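ugh ok so i messed up the first submission bc i forgot one of the chains. this is the corrected input, ALL of the components this time, i swear. 413 residues overall. if the numbers dont match what u have on ur side tell me asap before i send this to the collaborators (the ones from the other lab, u know who)
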Amino acid sequence: MPSWIHKPSWVHKPTRKIVLLVTGAIALVLFGALGAAVVLLSGAYSTAATTQHFKITHRLLDAGLRYSVRASASDIQAPILDEPHKYEQGAACYRLHCAQCHGAPGIAPDEEGRGMLPIASNLAQSAREWPAEWLYYVTKKGVRMSGMPAWEFRMSEESLWSTVAFLTRLPSLTRAEYAQLSQYSAQLECESAEGAEMQASEDRTKIVFRQYACHSCHRIEGVVGPKSYVGPALVEWSHRKYLAGTLPNNEENLVRFILDPQAVRPHSLMPKLEVAPAHARQMARYLLELE
Amino acid sequence: MSVTARIAIGWLYLVLCGCMAPEGYEPHVPEGDPRQGREVLAELECGVCHVIPGVPGARGRVGPALADYKRNVYIAGRYPNDPDILTRFVRDAPSMSPDTAMPAIEMSEAQARDIAAYLYSL
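and heres the new structure output, hopefully the right one now
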């Protein structure tokens, strides 16, 4: 050390070691981040759905999913599932909402399902290996960055459990048995989410926006999403006088428009998203609070 | 290009201009003059109803903010955002969308083009 640098009195040996270690660790992290940024910006990282992960990455991601699901599902308690009316109902939900990606005994997934990365697992195997609570959790919440949708906002609580009841039977079904169950359940409906949202917290409302795909077209204040310019930006909304260029901006009109835009403006490019009325109100209130 | 070359270029990007993504489509208004457009916007007081960046006092909240207009996909939720259509819309919205709260505003075709050019320059 050059003599003109004064060594402060507090730098005795062990402290210096720690400082050195910490600096080293920070430098390593920064270097790693920089490396990742370079790979990303150079375009060398492939986003093609035909480019599989490395085997090790795939195994790590699989393990990550299991650990995450196990932790999140730890305080869920499954009801009794082994009842015919439950799995018959669940078969209806499965045929309607799941088979296109996951396939069914003797039946291939649809074309959309086959082209995905990660590929939708064959659930006969998952249901053999996973407890019902895990199946319920994944069905309800979906899997981020995988193409597995969350069904919480599309299926009632009862339908979710019925679907799980069906899943638990899935590994034991032959092709003929599935065909029979599927045919029988064709007359049953899969109950959609009732959408009664009692304590609507702000965070919950943000999830509601995303679960109706509002952010695929709108930039919404406080909601992270793509930089979409298909619909107007929903920001500083409380100041707006008119809504959709024609209605005075207030809660009732907002709810009306969100529920059925084309009933308000027949030419509107905003589609009807089958929003539950309680959710529309929740979103309207959120928007009207944006300063 | 080899992966190494790409990584090297990535370095350059990082050093020279930071993170950038291509911006894409740039609408062009034939014979539209953005500088003139800004003056016309101020003169016709569009700012009473719209927030328009760069136009003094344009802070109205009756209609949508007109920031970043070139990236909007649609005009008034009804028409494709195209220079010709925008030029017509800013002059005479009600003839194109009878239920709209945006009024028809008297101006020349050239002024409308200048306005469109300015909005696309934001």
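quick check: Chain B has one domain: 3-121. that seems consistent at least. Chain B touches chain A at residues 3, 6-11, 13-14, 19, 61-65, 68, 71-74, 76-78, 97, 99-102 (CB under 8 Å).
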